[in-house]
Design brief:
Number of strands: 8
Mean pLDDT: 94
Order of helices and strands: EHEHEHEHHEHHHEHHEHEH
CATH class: Alpha Beta
Oligomer: single chain
Low-confidence stretches: none
Distance between the termini: 9 Å
Structural class: alpha/beta
Strand order of the largest sheet: 7-6-5-4-3-2-1-8
Length: 255
């Protein structure tokens, strides 16, 4: 059985001091929580502070992006090697904001995926369609393309251990989340593509998260779907009590 995973994406929020204050509260709330994996992705400036702040707990830390080169003259970029040396174990790749605002493509995300895995990081690989693509009936076509191109060249063993996050772009930061049926159908399609492209073992082992305005009030309904293994949480992860409620909700309905 796949262990649920709930990941916090803080995006461009929280100073070092704010991150430390969050962890003081959150660690106390989650001290006895079991049956769910927790990942926090702070901004790069707070990475080392968060890594230090989760020592002695089961909370993992992720970068919010990584370049595909190990080092070099790439001003402003962070390599997977540098991320790994902070103590981070995961990295978010292909997030819709990176694709839409910073020009990430399926091909560049694929390069990042391979580099992250090579340096021992677990990718949280994001896919999802725009509202226009969904309205045109192209949602599943878009997901198929993103998965096939983004995971090109990876082995079934590598795919089995990574995380996929389905994030309908029209539901991120809008307060609107996909219906249970929409999310469930998308996740089932993603699992099917993984099974077709790799093998049943890889598809069944890979965890698929839902990301799109996840909140304490809707997380239980979302993760009750058989193919949804947790959540990638944005705004609702900035408050420690709110994020704890989401973690507890994800654990309660999937274990």
């Amino acid at each position: 059985m796949r262990t649920p995973l709930v990941a916090a994406n803080w995006k461009m929020h929280k100073t070092v001091q704010e991150a430390q204050a969050f962890l003081q509260v959150f660690r106390g709330l989650t001290e006895d929580v079991t049956g769910v994996d927790i990942v926090i992705a702070p901004p790069f400036t707070a990475l080392t502070a968060v890594v230090a702040g989760v020592q002695g707990s089961s909370i993992a830390v992720a970068g919010q992006d990584a370049y595909w080169q190990a080092e070099g003259a790439f001003t402003g970029a962070i390599s997977p090697s540098l991320l790994a040396h902070t103590g981070a174990t995961h990295v978010i790749l292909g997030h819709s904001e990176r694709r839409n605002l910073f020009g990430d493509t399926d091909e560049s995300v694929n390069k990042k995926m391979s580099a992250a895995i090579a340096f021992g990081l677990t990718p949280i690989f994001c896919v999802g369609e725009t509202l226009e693509e969904r309205d045109r009936g192209e949602a599943l076509v878009v997901l198929t393309r993103q998965i096939r191109r983004g995971l090109d060249g990876l082995s079934g063993e590598q795919v089995a251990s990574l995380v996929v996050a389905y994030e309908p772009i029209w539901a991120i930061g809008t307060g609107h989340n996909a219906t249970v049926d929409q999310a469930g159908n998308a996740h089932a399609h993603i699992r099917g593509i993984l099974r077709e492209r790799f093998d049943t073992g890889a598809a069944e082992s890979c965890r698929i998260l839902y990301g799109g305005s996840v909140k304490p009030g809707n997380v239980r309904e979302i993760v009750a779907q058989p193919e949804i293994d947790g959540a990638l949480v944005g705004g609702a992860s900035l408050d420690p009590k709110s994020f704890f409620e989401i973690v507890a909700g994800g654990r309660a309905t999937t274990v």
